[in-house]
Amino acid sequence: MVTFPTSNIIRERLFNWVNKMAHDREILRMIWEGQIAICFQADSEEIVGLQQPENFYLMVSRLSYLPLVTDKVKKYFSRYISHELQDGNVWFDYNGIPLKLHYPIGVLYDLLYPEEDSVPWYLTIHFSKFPEDVLVKLSTRDLLESHFMSCLKEADVLKHRGQIISSMQKKDHNQLWQGLSNDKFDQFWAINRRLMEANGDQETFKYIPVRFYADEDTFIQKLITPIKKNGQKKTVGEMMIEMSTPLKKVVEVRTQGISIHDGANLQWLSEHLSYPDNFLHLFLVYESNI
Q1: pTM for this predicted structure
Q2: What is 34-126's CATH number?
Q3: Fold assignment, 141-289
Q4: Which long-range contacts (CB under 8 A, 24 or more apart) does 84-89 make?
Q5: pLDDT of 169-187, one tens digit each?
């Protein structure tokens, strides 16, 4: 039996620090080091021969993407798969739900498996029947890198009108991607800190790059300013009011596996809890869903 260390203690420390809005590099490192235990299993219909493969276990970064771990998983299971299928587009599902390859793994996990993570998350790998109607093909790392950089540019347009990312050199873009794909915190943040600086002589970004999720189908985006009309910084609670409707009231916001206090300010949250694509990925819990 394979066992995994619980992350409850780490989550509790992170929850306390985040909701005190600690200005500490250690918050960034704890977010970076957040991991999910995943148990990969084969599609029984694709197995050739009588021998069934054992499951394959990995501790995977919350901030990473499934295509960045595909090679390891594919290599393990390929000996049990016919040669005709091995060059196909690999994809994964959880309980029959195809997993979006362009979503960060932590976002997928929080969308589909919000329970305590004391047990591994069971995913099935497929070598055939790629569901083109619901998934974007990211068959190479270059395609994923292109998607990642597109998200970074979109986020910087919202924060700085695109001025920071456009002023960077190609080597800076490469360093951001290499830092993420090789799990190098210092390498990534040496460049990313420039994207997290306030807009010009202001104390905040122009807009907060944020994607809102309420179900597993899609996300919505809305222009969210970090400053209220009176010049004060906007809080999570005030954003919750903006995202509520007369029929559906937002009562909780979650990200990175934790519930966010409604008194936390959005600027701080964006600087510390954004994913490497520079977006906050926020999960909205509505009163009508409880």
Answers
A1: 0.89
A2: 3.10.20.620
A3: Ubiquitin-like (UB roll) (3.10.20)
A4: 85/46, 85/127, 85/128, 86/127, 88/127, 88/128, 88/130, 89/130, 89/137, 89/139
A5: 999 999 999 999 999 999 9
